[in-house]
Amino acid sequence: MGLTRDIAQFAIGASGDEVSKQARAVMALSIMDWFSVAIAGKDEPVTRIVFQFIQKEGGAAQSSILGSSTKYPARAAAFANGVASHALDYDDTHFAYVGHPSAVIVSATLALAESRKCTGQKFLDAALIGAESACLIGTWLGRGHYQAGFHQTATAGCLGATLACARLLEFDMKKAQHALGIASTRTAGLKSQFGTMGKPYNAGAAAANAVESVLLAEHGFTSAGNALECEQGFSATHAGEEHQLGNFTERFRNNCLFESVQHKFHSCCHGIHASLEALAQIMEEHRVSHEEIKRVSVSVNPRWMKVCDIKQPKTGLQAKFSYRFALAMLALGIDTAAPASFVDEICQSMELGEFAGRVQVEPDSEHPDTAATVTIEAHSGSIHDQYYDLENLPDLAVRTRKVRSKAGSLIGETAARQIWNLIQALPHTSIDRFMQDAIASDQAESRVWPRSER
Amino acid sequence: MGLTRDIAQFAIGASGDEVSKQARAVMALSIMDWFSVAIAGKDEPVTRIVFQFIQKEGGAAQSSILGSSTKYPARAAAFANGVASHALDYDDTHFAYVGHPSAVIVSATLALAESRKCTGQKFLDAALIGAESACLIGTWLGRGHYQAGFHQTATAGCLGATLACARLLEFDMKKAQHALGIASTRTAGLKSQFGTMGKPYNAGAAAANAVESVLLAEHGFTSAGNALECEQGFSATHAGEEHQLGNFTERFRNNCLFESVQHKFHSCCHGIHASLEALAQIMEEHRVSHEEIKRVSVSVNPRWMKVCDIKQPKTGLQAKFSYRFALAMLALGIDTAAPASFVDEICQSMELGEFAGRVQVEPDSEHPDTAATVTIEAHSGSIHDQYYDLENLPDLAVRTRKVRSKAGSLIGETAARQIWNLIQALPHTSIDRFMQDAIASDQAESRVWPRSER
Q1: Which of A80, A211, A221, A346 is packed most tightly, with the most Cβ within 10 A?
Q2: Are residues B311 and B322 in contact, defined by beta-carbon separation less than 8 angstroms?
Q3: Quick one: average pLDDT of B229-235?
């Protein structure tokens, strides 16, 4: 068989009935999160530049681009929305995939589904199976691929999105394999562009490549059928580790990888998130106010010390990489979910600076990357500590509350509520109607709630 | 400095005055050859599929696609013409670049130049400097990059085409470096797709990527400035060998690499070309007819024995990989330059089969890949032998005659003559007028000279 054939068979063959209720609920969260970060990212400079490029090219009115009332070709919509949803680097992540699944997979699948006036149910199934395929391909390629310098969000993402789109168009095995072959020789993306507009661009280009690969295969384009694993194929040329995966369908039924997708709830460096969650938990459970706190100690994996322990941030961007400042913001009730909270002025705040002075950060190699322990000492003398590991996902109700709250912070309460309701009704709505309503919700919100400049 | 900066500086800074007359003449040959193979390749299945995809997307009427009277966005035109010009694998090649330069560079530069209504002179300068840049980047990456599985036509080609387009739009250093950064994270192409539609697709996608990279950089898109040589940059992730190149500008003035571009003159496997040239030379110089030939012996590098020594071809495609048959065709006056000559029926020809039986092929490791020795023994008893190495390029007059003769075989005498005249007048013509006239020449020819089905 070989991976190309196996993964194609899984993606086009998996029955929608095998999808658990939990997996469907998590997909809905990721779609809500995708809208939040994409709407919040649509005015970023990189998104605007890509949109101008697309506007000048024009083309058939097929699919929606967030922030625009004109439709564009499906490939262009996948490109623009892919860039928008990764522009803030605030979109969902997956450990097995080693990257951000929805920026690529939702962007591509949604654009193609809209251009074909698919039902919401068909889109949801395709996006979920495509995301699961991307997690499987990401696992197969392994961390070696990422460590060699390839942006797995774009590479595994393009391949997974290609499978999602192949499923959407009800491809047979041959067509699905040809589409993967095309995607394998088209997809790219280097980590050495991180820190530039190149990072979100990689995600958008990957989504566009997936749409292109599937539309060419639909027209009869043929390619080498074992493109991922063959001699000098995608894996061999891209430092793939080719891990064993077992039987996909069985694995999916018993343990859907995509269910463990993570959503980011703070608009700062990922290394700070676990400590923010731990502090919030202490303050909430023990009803401690910031005035009562005498000292805060944080233990984290040593790798973070060089990443996000800026002691005296001077700009909002630097505050995103400062344990002391981010924890101070949370303690004082500033919304760390909103990118707009991280403005340069906060670094001048006496109150924040004073609290930040009470925070101490210690490296501790016993902590995994994803965990932190926060200990607080109150003026009363009482001591509370809390360990938090991002890998231990809270239950669905908590995840849902957090995703919806983040959406409110990012795009406004009304738009967030309306889009959430649209997503709940999605199985029974056509995608073009859904997108029209979602865009209307965003545009109405913009009029009554001007977001601060980023 | 670093390669990214150096090559960008060369490409945008080189003065048109430094371009030798010989280099300009060779560029004109490559443009003629590009039109020949692209027009001949425009009805290939892969080209038709890509064109259908482009047609459905539609968009701004900016640039011409061969075979279409509607214009499309520059990026789409680069894509379609890139695929068309590489579809027959009959386009120009360069040893240092390790690939086919014009399919990518001419396709991208021409499309962008037309969309901006540039002068012919500006286009010619940009294409030549871009092609030279691609040869330099190809040399820098080295054969290791190709041997690892990357399709250098697409990779070095996209980077060179990006520089050609950056020059066309008169970018400053910063913009040119950003464009290269974008291209470095966008370009792809695997050799494992050879033998499928993926091969010409790689060339077309590379041309489209170059146009996209430059248009984004023009709009203000920023990227990492040392994208080719930085840690985990393009070279490090793509098995680049990073050969030393010396001073580009000086090197270009003294030894323009692009001048040694090769044009293919026979529509069969490249391994047979040197022996065809040697046989033609003997028959012409010594006025030997095919009836007078008793025996033909061919010595070639052993690597070709497994590639193109099919003894009893059954199809036209197999005849393209048969020394005996291809030499028989040439000896009997069949036009080996025309792809249409290699039809299945020729394998049934008694006369060809009879001549083929007189040809013997011997492996000889003293011969380089690019050379052959042909010895003929006439019935009269006289013996002639001829060594031919494709690397020893004939003088410009001979190359010109051959390129024009190939053009006549491929696209018809009238169209070939008209397009040749248009290219001669190109320095003083605007590109949009030039393309309009070239397409009209092609379309007029098609009406009076129906080409046989391939």
Answers
A1: A80
A2: yes
A3: 96
Q: CA dist B56 to A219, B49, B52, Å?
A: 11, 11, 6
CA angle B371, B374, B378 (to 5 degrees): 170
Question: In the 3-class helix/strand/coil scheme, how is A394-418 assigned residue by residue?
Answer: CCHHHHHHHHHHHHHHHHCHHHHHH
B3-262+410-448 CATH? 1.10.4100.10
A321-372: pLDDT as tens digits: 999 999 999 999 999 999 999 999 999 999 999 999 999 999 999 999 999 9
Give the contacts of B410 (CB within 8 A, at least 6 positions apart).
B36, B37, B39, B40, B90, B337, B338, B339, B416
Structure tokens at A264: 């980011």
* Residues near B298 by beta carbon (within 8 Å), at least 6 away in sequence: B275, B323, B327, B359, B360, B361, B362, B372, B373, B374
Tell me if chain B has a CB within 8 Å of the CB of A208: no
* Nearest residue, CB atoms, B60 vs list A46, A52, A57: A57
Phi/psi region, residue B194 (left: phi>0; alpha: psi -120 to 50; beta: rest), is beta
**Interchain CB contact of B33 with A (< 8 Å):** no
Distance of CA B210 to the CA centre of its chain: 17
The answer to whether A223 contacts chain B (CB < 8 Å) is yes
Tell me the three state secondary structure of residue A315: coil
What is the average per-residue pLDDT within A29-47?
97
CA-nearest residue to B231 within chain A is A192
- Segment A131-147, tens digit of pLDDT: 999 999 999 999 999 99
pTM over cut 0.90:
yes
What pLDDT does A253 receive? Answer: 79
Give the pLDDT confidence of B351-372 residue by residue, as tens digits.
Answer: 999 999 999 999 999 999 999 9
In a mutational test of the A interface, the residue from B232, B235, B238 whose CB has the highest number of chain A CBs within 10 Å is B232
Q: Which CATH superfamily is domain A270-389 in?
A: 2-methylcitrate dehydratase PrpD (3.30.1330.120)
Other Cβ atoms within 10 Å of A259 Cβ, number = 19
Per residue in B2-23, pLDDT tens?
Answer: 999 999 999 999 887 878 899 9
* Three-class secondary structure of residue B261 per DSSP: coil
Mutate to test the interface with A, among B72, B197, B234, B235 (most CBs of A within 10 A): B197
Domain spans of chain B, in order of start: 3-262+410-448, 270-389
Residue closest to B412 by CA, chosen among B40, B33, B42: B40
Q: What DSSP assignment string belongs to B46-66?
A: HHHHHHHHHHHH-----EE-T
Q: What's the alpha-carbon Rg for chain A, to the nearest Å?
A: 22
Domain A3-260, second-level architecture: Orthogonal Bundle (1.10)
Residue B421 one-letter amino acid: N
For residues A308 and A322, the answer to whether their CB atoms sit within 8 Å is yes
Q: Which of residues 344-383 of B touch A (CB under 8 A)?
A: none
Residue whose structure tokens are 């309503």: A437
Measured distance CA(B195)–CA(B192) in Å, rounded: 8
Closest by Cα among A201, A234, A172, A216 to A82:
A201
Which parts of A219-320 fold into alpha helices (H)?
A: 234-237, 248-254, 270-285, 316-319
**Whole-number pLDDT of residue A451:** 42
In this complex, do B188 and A185 lie within 8 Å of one another by their Cβ atoms?
yes
Sign, Cα dihedral of A199, A203, A208, A212: positive
